[in-house]
Design a protein that fits this description.
The structure is a single chain. The protein is an alpha/beta fold. The protein has one domain: Response regulator (Rossmann fold), CATH 3.40.50.2300. The protein contains 6 helices and 3 strands, in the order ααβαβαβαα. A 3-stranded parallel beta sheet has the order 1-2-3, with helices on both faces. α1 packs across α6 and α2 packs parallel to α3. The longest helix has 13 residues. The chain is globular. 27% of the residues are buried. The model has no long low-confidence stretch (mean pLDDT 93).
Length: 128
C-alpha cells in the first residue's frame, strides 16, 4: 500500500478485512519509498514483488503516476496488479491510470460503507 494518510491506511485495512481478503500488507508513505521498495523486491532479505499495489496518486516525493509508470516500465515487478486509490475523480487522472494499465481505479468515497467496497474489488481482482 502506498498511502501517506494514516486514516486512509486504516480504512483500506478495514475494507480488506470486511472483504475477506487475507493478506500480508506493507505500507510506504511516499512515492520514492514505493519505488525503492519495488527495486529491492526479490533480493536477498527482501520480500518478493507484491501481488497487488494499492496506490494513492497524491504522494510526497514522487507522485502516484510516477510510481505507476515505474512499475509498468521495470522488468522486475511490471506485472503486479495496481489499484489506484485516490480522492481524485478528474478525467485526466482516470485516463492516465488507464494509459499506464492500472487494473482498477477507486475514488475514495465520503462514507465508511462506500469505502468498504474496496475489499470486494481487491478480492475479485486477486481471485480469492
Amino acid at each position: 500500500m502506498v498511502e501517506d494518510n494514516r486514516a486512509d491506511v486504516y480504512l483500506i485495512e478495514e475494507a480488506l478485512t470486511e472483504g475477506g481478503v487475507v493478506a500480508q500488507t506493507a505500507v510506504v508513505e511516499d512515492g520514492q519509498a514505493a519505488t525503492e521498495f519495488l527495486e529491492r523486491s526479490g533480493e536477498r532479505d527482501a520480500p518478493p514483488c507484491p501481488d497487488l499495489v494499492l496506490l494513492d496518486l497524491n504522494l510526497p516525493k514522487k507522485s502516484g503516476d510516477e510510481v505507476l509508470a515505474y512499475i509498468r516500465s521495470t522488468g522486475k515487478c511490471k506485472h503486479v496488479k495496481v489499484i489506484i486509490v485516490t480522492s481524485s475523480d478528474a478525467s485526466v487522472d482516470r485516463q492516465m491510470a488507464q494509459d499506464l494499465r492500472a487494473d482498477a481505479y477507486f475514488r475514495k468515497p465520503s462514507t465508511y460503507s462506500e469505502y468498504m467496497r474496496l475489499g470486494s474489488i481487491v478480492r475479485d481482482l486477486l481471485g480469492c
